[in-house]
Design goal:
single chain; 351 residues; alpha+beta; 13-stranded mixed beta sheet; 20 strands; globular; disordered N terminus; disordered C terminus
């Protein structure tokens, strides 16, 4: 009898050891990291203390606890108990006047191609200058020029309680002084995946040495790849941590102006996107907020893409190591409502 119990215990222990690697892998692929990330965010409840820890002297201007404050980032919550209302909002799209939609990431120093000096800082920490593209977005009767994008680790915005590994924020400034917003930001969220990253993330990963001040590099980044990847990501691909669009050099725009998505769209969309697909350029969240670094100026129009883009675990870890924990804590909505875009009523009925 004792021998039988001893054998049963040995069998149970050996089975547990065999299953342990599988359990660890599944936990790595699951959304279990979200609990840890949310705990970190909750530990930094005071935005003032957070910015003071980062060394900002003007952090007092970022007090999101004031009753009428419209600060960012925010927690986006869908459902009956959420803060989201659905509205018929226009599709998003970029127009680039740059030849082929290609630009070079480079830092100050001597240009290795022309031998001339650089006076413009194209890569500064987590900030990537994009003015060379001459790209813009038309939204709400106003034109906003793309100025730069920022990388934040972890992501600053959350959707339905999920914290994402990284956030890419495309910052645009209005052409006209009549614009109701000081800037427009298109925000893209990235979800960790063990193997998959889009083509442009691989290029940014190779450019991580450029993020160090004073280091020189010169790399080419195709804006067509970046724009189509973030704008054409669909809900079904995001749900299964896949990519809707995978860049093909033949897809490059060769004659500017280069149009990516928007109401007119470009020829590539017709090849693989159904008209009713919930792609990011017609599936996003909109709200009025602020910059997420001091002086936290308000009047920013935030357009947060609904569908996350996968990023390879190794790439994400490298960005996190290079950038550190630079996400601002979540801010109260203070009565604000987040709008969610949809194209037409028959799409709304499918959700």
């Amino acid at each position: 009898m004792q021998q039988r119990h001893r054998s049963a215990r040995l069998f149970f222990a050996s089975s547990l050891l065999l299953c342990l690697p599988i359990i660890l892998i599944l936990s790595r692929l699951s959304w279990g990291h979200d609990d840890d990330n949310i705990a970190v965010l909750k530990a930094r409840t005071s935005a003032l203390e957070y910015f003071k820890d980062l060394g900002y002297s003007n952090a007092e201007k970022c007090d999101g606890s004031l009753p009428m404050a419209e600060q960012s980032p925010v927690a986006i919550m869908e459902g009956l108990d959420g803060n989201v209302v659905r509205e018929q909002l226009p599709p998003l799209g970029w127009i680039s006047l740059n030849d082929g939609g290609v630009y070079r990431m480079k830092t100050p120093g001597t240009d290795q191609v022309t031998g001339g000096p650089h006076v413009q800082l194209f890569v500064d920490g987590n900030k990537f200058d994009m003015r060379e593209l001459q790209a813009h977005i038309d939204y709400g009767g106003q034109t906003y020029k793309l100025d730069h994008f920022l990388l934040k680790t972890p992501a600053e915005h959350t959707i339905n309680g999920v914290t994402f590994g990284m956030e890419q924020q495309f910052v645009h400034y209005p052409v006209s002084a009549s614009s109701p917003y000081t800037s427009l930001v298109i925000s893209v969220l990235f979800q960790e995946h063990p193997l998959i990253s889009p083509e442009f993330i691989e290029k940014l990963y190779l450019a991580i040495p450029c993020m160090g001040e004073g280091k020189h590099c010169q790399r080419t980044l195709n804006f067509a790849s970046m724009a189509r990847t973030v704008l054409y990501q669909t809900a079904s691909a995001s749900r299964f941590h896949k990519l809707t669009y995978e860049y093909d050099p033949m897809d490059a725009c060769k004659t500017p102006p280069c149009v990516f998505a928007g109401s007119a769209g470009d020829a590539i969309v017709q090849n693989f996107l159904e008209p009713s697909s919930r792609a990011n350029f017609r599936s996003y969240f909109k709200y009025r907020g602020s910059e997420t670094l001091p002086p936290c100026e308000e009047g920013v129009l935030w357009l947060v893409m609904h569908n996350a883009v996968p990023i390879q675990s190794d790439h994400l870890a490298a960005f996190q190591l290079a950038l550190g924990d630079i996400a601002r804590p979540l801010q109260p909505l203070n009565g604000r409502v987040v709008q969610e875009a949809f194209r037409c009523w028959h799409e709304l009925a499918k959700l």
